[in-house]
Structures are given as C-alpha cells and as structure tokens.
Amino acid sequence: MKILVCISHVPDTTSKINFTDNNTQFDTNGVQFVINPNDEFGLTRAMWFKEKQGATVDVINVGGAETEPTLRKALAIGADNAIRVNTPATDGFQVAKQLANVAKEGGYDLIIAGRESIDYNGGMVPGMLAALLKANFVNTCIGIEVEGTEAKAVREIDGGKETVSAKLPLVIGGQKGLVEESDLRIPNMRGIMMARKKPLNVVEPVEVTVQTEAEKFEKPAPKGAVKLVDPDNLDELIQLLHTEAKVI
Amino acid sequence: MSVLVYIESEEGKFKKASLEVASYAKEVAQMLGTSVTGITFNADDVSELGTYGVDKVLKVNNSKLKDFNAEAYADAIKQAAEKEGTKVVVVSQSANSKYLAPLLAVHLNAGYASNVVSLPESGSPFVVKRTAFTNKAFSFTKIDTDVKIVGVSKNAFGLKESQGSATAEDFSPNLSEEDFSVNVISVDKAKDKVTIADAEIVVSGGRGLKGPENWGMIEDLAETLGAATACSKPVSDMGWRPHSEHVGQTGKPVASNLYIAIGISGAIQHLAGINSSKVKVVINNDPEAPFFKAADYGVVGDAFEIVPKLNEKLKEFKAKNA
Do A123 and B133 touch (CB under 8 A)? Predict the structure, then answer.
C-alpha cells in the first residue's frame, strides 16, 4: 500500500498569536512550529499500517524552506520520503491544488490529511484534494482499516459515529481517534539520524488562481473581569445567569 | 441569482443551525437584491422555512439519500445552484456541512470561507470575518470567485424571523453511481442525548474531578439544564470520558450560549476551543486557575460541594420558572 500523509506546519498549540505588518501577517517571532496535531494522528496511523500491513509512507507539505524541520520530524517518526512543494501556502484551495498535482502522479492508495490545520482552521484541504483527484473521501475520520482495495472507516458525526465502506484510492480528513494520544511518537536519536539521510524532494508549484485571501487579522477584544460569586450564595449565580446573561 | 442555503434536517425536524443559516442567507440576499432558495433532503413539511427567510424550497425526495452522503448531497446542491444561477451558497458548520462544503467548492469552482461569524460588509468586495487560530484571532477573508460558499458558525448570527412564506418545488437531481461510492454500514448515535454540536448549554469537567466515578454530578447538572456533557483533554486522554466529549483546540469546538467549566484549570488550548461560547462560568478551588481570566462568572470553591448544591438550586429555579 502507498500512503501519502499531508503535513501542515503550524504554531505549537501553546503559542501566543500576534500579527505584524498592520495586522496582515502572522507574527512568527518566538513561535515554535510543529506538525499539525490532526496530521500527526494520521501520520501515526500510517506508521501502524507500515508496521502491521506493509506500506510505504510519503509525507508532503506545501511551504517554504522554513517548513523543512517539520518534514524532517515526520521522517524521524518513520515516514520514508518527504516532498515539499516550494511555495508559501496561501489558502486551502491553493494547497489542495498543489497537493493534487503531486499526488496524481504518485499512485497513492490512501491519502491522509488532518481534518483542519490548527492555524487557519479552513477544514477544506482534504475534501478539495479528494474532489480534485476524484478519489473517495471520508471526513472527521476516527478509525480506518484497509483490506485489499477496500477500506472501512469510522467517521465522527454530531452526537455519535458512523462506519462507512469505500474503495481505494481514498482521502481521509483525520483527527484524534485514528490513534490515541499515547500512541504518538517522539522521534528517537536513531530516527533523527536516519531522517537526515532520507530523501526530501523539493518540487516546484503549479500556477493556481486565487480563490480567497486573508486580508487582515484581528484579535478578540479583551475580556472584562470575572464576576465572582460566593459558594454559599449560589442563588446569586442563578439570578445572574437568568437576568443578566439571559442564558437560563 | 438567488442565494442557496443547504437546510439540514433530522427525522423530519430542521436543525436549528440550518434555520440560523437561512436567516443569514436572507440578509445576504437582501444585500444582493435577490431571494433565498433552500434545498432540503427528504423533508416533508417545509412551511417553517418561510419564517426564517426562505422564499423557495427545492425539495429532494430520494430514498437513496436517506443516509447523509457527502458526495451525493454535494452533487445535488451543485445542480440546484446551477439551476438557480446561484452566486452565494450558505451552509452551517455541522459535521455534515463541513464534510460536503469542500467537495461542493471544487464542483462549483467556488471560493469557500469556513467558520464565518459575520455578514459580508458588502456584496463586492465580498469580505467575511471568520475565526482563525482556533478562536485566538479573526481573519477578514475576501472571496474572489464568481460563486462563493459561506460556512456560518453556530450561534454566530442567531435566528431572525421574518414575515415570508416559502413555496415548495420538487427537485430531482441527476445522481450518478460515483456519487454513492462511500456507503454507510452502521450508525452509532446516542438517542435522547444532547450533542455538543447542538447544545445551548455545555457542562464540562476536568482533572479536578479526580476520577471518572465522580461524573455523576456532572451528568445530573447537565440533565437539569438540558445540557451536553464535555471534558478537557487530559480527562479524555486518561480514558475517564470518551474522545467525543473532548473539547478544545484538538477536540471539538464549543459555541454554546453557556459553558460551565468544573475543575478545569483553563489551559490555553482548552480556552481556544471554547472561546466562541457566549457566557462562561468556572467552578474551581484554585483562584489562580487561568480560567478565571477567561470566564464571565466564577465560583472559587470545592466542586464536590458546589455542583450538587447548584444542581438542587437550579432544579428549584426550573420548577419555579417552568
């Protein structure tokens, strides 16, 4: 089986979010970048396939050279090859187009992308990629098994889950549940050493028509101070929620 | 030219989020000087939609579409959009809408903005405000394409009733075999349980509750309030509660009217995920817990004493105000 895992290079979940250039650019100053958590669950599931069923695992990212350490980390975790499409990621459609351009030549059976990146939260790359490749698609995927050319996937729905079947090639939008948090791997020294020797191919982008543009950013207004209620006076809390906040 | 809105229903009842996106579509239509067309799947009585601004309903009735199927639904919506000459399609941000919208975007060659929290300032340029960085920021996103798809966040716009009534028309899209290549084998859904996605109120517990055996009081409180139950990441990682209850940056987002956090310290990732909730209450014995900085109301004290007491008082309140 040939698996492609799409990796987004995102600020660590604890990052403080700030903007520069008149609020038009994300301020990367002092920000630690990581593999997008939703992608990391998918990558770890791909490792499971590699070890249990036999698979080659390629990882791909759309971005500038500064994203290479993130791809190297994926190689250190155990991916076989890395591909970087040499262009900044601008919107979900542009990323999906670049990924599709590489993936269509790759003969992948399974393509795993996170259901969304934790930075721009577009949630559109996996679906758009599937549509561009005319491959089957399962979103918010929390479980997947493959037998021959047939996949069985579990999808999270509002209030429960749904099991579906689909033929390969398949694209999934993955998330936690594909593997457990405790299954995530920290690269060991041997993995890191080996990752240095693994191929990281840089491919040039195709031209894509711009569909959406993030023109500027804004931070939420600062919050007013919390109103503290005495634990012996919970009636006051109920009154506040009823008459002031009007939520009960 | 009409604005097209995908209306979701479950067992014949329209989802509140869909009525909200219909209200949104109505205001966009007024801005563009056009009307609103809704598309429904296997819904019988669509008269309620008129109240929320829908002028015309395209009713798709097809037993093959009994289960949600992203590809087939997206194909049907695409054909409806083409028939109506639609320039703007509005969807909610339910799991199903988020599933089909990117497929629809490719099929319609449309730019798609998700997690939108406001109306566009004008029809041209079409700029919408959306949440980004998991609610730590907003992004003003311009959609450049001729056809546009807007995914409106739950609770961001609210329901707006209008005086109109909706006309209904049967609509039979041409669906191909490829539309049905992902097939549902089984659905596992808790009946009679409020989901985090639909809930007006969410009661959430953290590590401060010390163990899964103490969740009874969380469930009792949720039941009194008609709320969904949720939990913090460590709680789901330790297996005290199922992953489906994990809310936060890598879990589910929460956009309820009221979010009650019990024994949750308020890590930045957790706060990001629940930040879209309108009113936040924190109950925690540590007055230094970061959640107090993010909350509207707080009680400093022992959750094991406060929660059962609060539940009793709420029951009395509910009985009085029923």
Answer: no
Predicted TM-score (pTM) of this structure: 0.95
Distance from CA of A64 to the nearest CA of B (A): 20
Q: What is the pLDDT of residues A182-200, one digit of tens each?
A: 999 999 999 999 999 999 9
B181:A19 CB<8 A: no
Ramachandran sector of residue A107 (left: φ over 0; alpha: ψ -120 to 50; beta: rest):
left
* pLDDT for position B12: 83
What is this model's ipTM? Answer: 0.96
DSSP A17: P
Q: Indicate yes or no: CB of A160 within 8 angstroms of CB of B71.
A: no
Domain carrying residue A11 = 2-218
Smallest Cβ–Cβ distance between A213 and the set B129, B144, B251 belongs to B144
Spatial CB neighbours of A210, under 8 Å, sequence gap ≥ 6:
A90, A91, A94, B144
CA B188 to chain A, closest CA, distance in angstroms equals: 5
Kind of pairing between the strands at B126-132 and B137-143 = antiparallel
Count how many Cα atoms sit within 13 Å of the Cα of residue B140 in the half-sphere of its side chain.
Answer: 15
Q: Is B117 on the interface with A (CB under 8 A)?
A: no
Q: Integer distance in angstroms from the first to the last C-alpha of chain A?
A: 54
- Homologous superfamily of B201-321 in CATH? TPP-binding domain (3.40.50.1220)
Architecture of the structural domain at B3-180: 3-Layer(aba) Sandwich (3.40)
pLDDT tens digits for range B138-193: 999 999 999 999 999 999 999 999 888 999 999 999 999 999 999 999 999 887 78
pLDDT digit string (tens) for A135-179? 999 999 999 999 999 999 999 999 899 999 999 999 999 999 999
**Encoding tokens for residue B59?**
């009713």
- The alpha-carbon gap from B164 to the nearest alpha carbon of chain A, in Å, equals 28
Residue A148: inside a domain: yes
Contacting B residues, span 118-177, partner chain A, CB-CB under 8 Å:
127, 129, 131-145
CA A82 → CA A41, A43, A226, B54, B252, distances in Å?
17, 12, 48, 49, 30
Over range B108-127, report the average pLDDT: 96
